[in-house]
Write a structure and sequence with these properties.
heterodimer, A: about 230 residues, mainly alpha, about 0% strand, B: about 220 residues, 5-stranded antiparallel beta sheet, 5 strands, about 35% helix
Amino acid sequence: MISRDEFNTIAWNGVWKQNTSIGQILGLCPLLAVTTNAVNGIMLSLATILVMAIANFAVASLRNFIPHEIRIPVFILIVAALVTVVDLLFNANLHELYLVLGIFIPLIVTNCIVLARVEAFAAKNPPLQSTFDGIFMGVGMLWTLGVLGAMREFIGNGTILGGIDMVFPSLQPIQLLPESYPGFLLALLPPGAFILLGCMIAWKNWMDAKAAERARLKPPAPVATAGCH
Amino acid sequence: MSAAKEFSAPGMAARTAAILFAFVVIFTGLLSGAYQWTKPAIEASAAEEKMKLVDEVLPRSEYDNALLQDTVTLPATLELGLSDPSTAYLARQAGAPVAAIFEAVAPDGYAGKVRLIMAIRANGQVAGVRVTQHKETPGLGDYVELKKDKNKARPWITQFNGMALTEVPDKEWKVKKDGGRLDYYAGATVTPRAVSKAVFKAAKWFEANREQLFNTPGAKP
């Protein structure tokens, strides 16, 4: 099964240490496209959590049958097939949710995070651990894209939670800045996403540097050695 | 070590290929199974989606036929900006034509094509227009899309409702900047201009093709 330590390491890796967006800097294409508001970013992340958990579980279960030489084509096959099946099942059985998440699911096929985690983690670890890894990588993406989306729409439109009415029709976006706020288009266009993402990466590095400094001052604190992939 | 002894290079290649092939067969089977199983439900919800879009441009109370079955296939129509054949839906009340619902494309948006769906009543009056697809600048030209329009009380796209060629002179089917009667927002004129032009051309096309549209053989009353 899974030990508490193992679980904590997987969770910490996913949410902060190897955070997909600001640690590994992967999957930037969907990131730029959808984080024009927080709701879209969160929705894409939810769909990604689902797909990554399933893909990691499937690959980890089959890992002993996959020859090393052809692992990449097989992984791509598995991920693409599973994403399509998830897409179809959503469309057929959870149509309301599909209308909200549906447009994001095909985006995930092209998302290198899924393939990266399958290759770097699921191919070498048991199914349970791999499933958790998929989920927590997605959670890390969730908060990052949520924050990035919120910043972009706040700066760009002066609103927060724009598009929430697509998920919960009874809710309305909140206008934080006065109606007369002229908007700042740069934040809504891809360059704005790059600039803000750069700020978030710098913030993460600064936090990590501070933590490393503290660890250095404190006598022999065990430093985690898991490398970045 | 043992693997290297058991398999020669061609044998190894054949084995790898067989495994890859097995995976392809399994996952293709999974895909086609899922496709077959979900097909009826997906088709049903696609029809529902279409009806939702139709409801946006024409109230359901105005007609009583099964509109999605009462269709005419339009050839590629230049006046509508359509370079491919498309489908027009005909609304009837007790067999009499009420309106036609069809697609049109404004080819000259700020960032490419703006796709529209519109309903024009049998008397030539525009019942409703909606933008279904566009790539206009977010926050600038995208107010032609109902959902993105900040003016919720009187969204821009609803200005076309009720306009008819018989009542509105040709030169007024333009934005105010060009001497017409349609509003626009300063700084984003290209998009509304393109949409206005497309709607005007579609109204003209409908006027010229009305009889043919409602009496096409194959369209059952």
